[in-house]
Amino acid sequence: MRIAMIGTGYVGLVSGACFSEFGTQVVCVDKDAEKIAALRAGRIPIYEPGLDRLVEGNVRAGRLTFTTDLSEAVKGADAVFIAVGTPSRRGDGHADLSYLYEAALEIAQCLDGYTVVVTKSTVPVGTGRQLEAMIRGERPDAVFDMVSNPEFLREGSAIDDFMRPDRVIIGAESERAQEIMRQLYGPLYLIETPILFTTLETAELTKYAANAFLAAKITFINEIADLCERVGADVHGVARGMGLDGRIGRKFLHPGPGYGGSCFPKDTLALVRTAREQGVALKIVESVVEINDRRKKQMAQKVIEHCGGSVEGKSVAVLGLTFKPNTDDMRDAPSLEIVPALQAAGARIRAFDPGGMAEAKKRLPDIEWCADSYAALDGADALVIITEWNEFRALDLERVKASMRSPVIVDLRNIYEPERMRAAGFDYTSVGRSRPVPSAVAAREAGE
Fold it and tell me: What is the mean pLDDT of residues 246-254?
């Protein structure tokens, strides 16, 4: 089979490479000539473990190619996937579909014989119907079916998510389109992956609903972490106790500085906007958005309080800037709120991130960028861990303490054990694992 993948961003490039690994002939299309030239030369524009080897192997095998010529890619394709960006629109939070509409109109001019047109981008409910109407308006003679096939890729483990997914959601309403999609995902049938065929609207909403629910789980455990700090409970024990309940599950119950990235922030906003347009109040999701935005700002204050109430003139080492490890993605990363707030409070920031330095430099000014963790720690009055890269989990604590001017650590990802850190001589705090404050102890002893 032969497919065209329109867009070589995160979703398009990973999906195109993985489909080619399945044995499909894939042509990836992008208007950015420099990006296409780089891909042809073997340079991958995003950081994703294993993607460089996957692309290289399938290019060498002749199954994966790159072009700026959309018309040539679409002609003769069994399916055309649209994987362009749908960022939050400024001012109202709705998904910006301008790139999607532009791609659909261009595809319409190039359709040649029966083709399945697939939205891989995350889009509000009803977008598939709009695209179908647009294409039919441009090409009444075109023979095609519109399909929604939302992605569920986690940055840092996207290849495994594509090759061994929990499920595949396909909004396809004709048997002909369903058969094409079955063939494309044939290898997943062999490993008995659940593949759910739905209507267009159901597939589109499933993506948003799933991301909103996961964002809600993160936000819930973050609020529980705040309560744990007040009463002397351990949020990790609470999370384990909750997660062992099969109805709840263990995943996404990890406290931290709030969610970020390319999906959760924009998708929760877009879902709220869509619901409001339909006269439906999604109060839970609205609260999740509000609480998460507030939490990022609260984390800067947490650092300041642990530094004695002021960071004026102090050198603060920051380890980790991307929204999660194993990616260079800085979109809506907690660091984008925390670092500027510390700078506004008078701190001098020395920072290091194993994979996101290039992107971070575009977004965070007036920072001293360091070559590694220990360089960032040299002479620091405090250390703040924002992203849980694995290499931060095994720092030489004696060297850390010797490097710092003051052994103050604020661990926003809970990668170290409090007792171990305190025994090593650090003034250490984390999220949801503090000892009970005196007022809480007194209240319990008084029987209140």
Answer: 96
